[in-house]
Design goal:
The chain is mainly beta. The chain is 5% helix and 39% strand. The protein folds into three domains: 102 residues, Cysteine proteinases (Cathepsin B, Chain A, Alpha-Beta Complex); 38 residues, no CATH class; 60 residues, no CATH class.
Length: 216
């Protein structure tokens, strides 16, 4: 099983659909002075000033005395509200709650062998979405491919080359994009402060500055 990245949900119908399919969703909204005194019924902001933002969990919806509501689980312990829960008016973006809904879900990863497959072929899926690609060495890369190589956690991709993340090496398209003391963009990568671009390949940073040709 794998958790998918969080995603935003917009619109009342989409929020309800996601709850039905995947369970509760997270929501952020603006809290006003009149919410802390809530005990029961469907909350609607009627008085007081904003006291800040807050995150809650929407677990369902319903209608009470003709008023549509979201059923929400709060984190202010079970002594607050209706045993820790409250209802907030649904369908009018009350306190901004319907504009700031997000969720995530778990899916079962389906994998297959990379034997006989070309680099970049899909070798793992998660809910039908591509989750892994075949690397040059025949392994299934469940991260990012860079020039056929699976990037490690401490690496990044520059112009098809994988480099180790550090304060010196970074991606570039021109010398002007490199740190002031480096000045050398070599095939998409800024060389370090004591490195230069290999004069033969023009593709690799090598140790040592080019020799001085004279004083200016």
């Amino acid at each position: 099983m794998k958790g998918t990245p969080a995603y935003r949900i917009k619109g009342e119908d989409n929020i309800k659909s996601d709850i039905v399919q995947h369970g509760s969703v997270q929501a952020a909204f603006t809290v006003y002075d009149d919410l802390p005194t809530y005990k029961s019924g469907v909350y609607r902001h009627t008085s007081g000033s904003s006291v800040g933002g807050h995150s809650v969990t929407i677990i369902g919806w319903g209608t009470e005395s003709g008023t549509p509501y979201w059923l929400v689980r709060n984190s202010w312990n079970t002594d607050w509200g209706d045993r820790g829960y409250f209802k907030i008016k649904r369908g009018n973006n009350e306190c901004g709650i319907e504009n700031q809904v997000s969720a995530g879900r778990y899916c079962e990863i389906q994998r297959k062998s990379c034997a006989g497959q070309v680099t970049g072929s899909v070798c793992a899926t998660c809910d039908g979405d591509a989750y892994g690609q075949c690397a040059d060495d025949g392994t299934c890369c469940e991260g990012s491919l860079c020039g056929g190589v699976c990037l490690g956690a401490s690496q990044k991709c520059c112009n098809g080359k994988h480099i180790t993340k550090n304060i010196f090496e970074s991606c570039c398209t021109a010398d002007s994009e490199c740190r002031q003391g480096d000045k050398t963009c070599c095939d998409g990568v800024c060389c370090g402060p004591f490195d230069r671009c290999d004069a033969t390949t023009k593709k690799t940073c090598v140790k040592g500055r080019p020799p001085f040709s004279g004083l200016v």
